[in-house]
Amino acid sequence: WCRLQMGERKLAEADAEAAELSLRQPCDLDDRALAQARLAQVKERLGEAREAALLRERARSDLQAHQVEQQRLVALLDEALNALDARNVRERVEVMNSLATALYFVDPEREARVATEAEELAEELGDPRALAQARLAVHRSLTHCPEARRERLDISRSTYALIDADVDPLLRLRIGRAVLTDLLENTDVDEFERRLDCYERDASTVKSP
């Protein structure tokens, strides 16, 4: 898509071909659906209407299958949450974070409520790691609202500050990626470049891409 915006048609065609090949690899249904939807947009711009229509249909089919899977998972997580004692706050926060994730394509409104409740419980618990994960759930729920990009940035910045590299380096990387994405969406290039250097150092430390 970016190649097309820059007028680099041949490079865009090469990228689209590589993307089609990558879709043959095993991956999550939601990831494949989103990739196919994006590729359909590129094919449309390239004048390949038939291929674009096929990709859109495959994306719809994969997303529907993913929703069915997530609905089953939601039922299981609801059952697990109901079985947990109210005093098991840490476990309840973990299950609620998982539940919020499963609700993303199923019930966005409930997802937001569950994520917010998990954040409130995590604050009572006083565990920075649990709080960070709950805030990531709130952050994810806000991706349904493009106009909330500044709020997402505020959340990811404050969440990043909660986790030191020696506490949970992989969680810190995950939050760091969210910060970088939010900075781009808010066109804050200067801070993006500074944060990218920090992210690269953190990733090198734990040998993660």
Structure description:
- This protein is mainly α and 209 residues long.
- Helix content is 78%, strand content 0%.
- The protein contains 10 helices and no strands.
- The protein has helices at 2-5, 9-22, 29-45, 49-83, 89-102, 108-125, 128-141, 149-160, 169-185, 189-206.
- α2 runs antiparallel to α3 (29-45), α3 runs antiparallel to α4 (49-83) and α8 (149-160) packs antiparallel against α9.
- The longest helix is centred in the first third of the chain and has 35 residues, at 49-83.
- The protein is globular and about 60 Å long.
- The two termini are 23 Å apart.
- The mean pLDDT is 91.
Provide the residue-averaged pLDDT: 91
The counted number of beta strands is 0
Task: State Rg.
Answer: 19 Å
Secondary-structure element string: HHHHHHHHHH
Distance between the ends: 23 Å
Q: Major sheet, described briefly?
A: none
Content of β-strand? under 5%
| Spatial shape | globular
Low-confidence stretches: none
Instruction: Name the helicity range.
Output: over 70%
